[in-house]
Amino acid sequence: MNLFAGPTNAEFSATVTLYDSHYSRTKIIGSTGGTIDDMKEAIEKNADGRIESAVMITHVGGLDSAVEVTKDLPNVPGGKKLVYTHINMPMTAIEDLASLADKDPFFLELDKVCRENRGLWSAKAERMLLEHFAETAA
To answer: Is 137 exposed, middle or buried (0-12, 13-18, 19+ CB in 10 A)?
Structure first.
């Protein structure tokens, strides 16, 4: 679904399951510019598996970090910042996950999984993170 111009009805809404939004080939795309040809090319490459969405994600963190990172976004290097809304975790570059190990050794394991995946975030890393925070919340 491409929300290029957005719906015209301000009451338009839908329930969306976002769990697999970075790993499946089905996407909801909203854009603020570009041409229709650019969009068609991006959709075609995504559908053919020529675009690897995971390379865009450079940081992960919890909702508690979202406001400050958003306010300082021009000064935060990297690409997409992935925010998990139900956890507390500083926004951390994937390449720096091991730096959180002094507070929680789990992050050494998470760092290892990302390094084994060419330094990229993955479904496996996400499952580990979600399971870890579910356990620590219990």
So the answer is: exposed
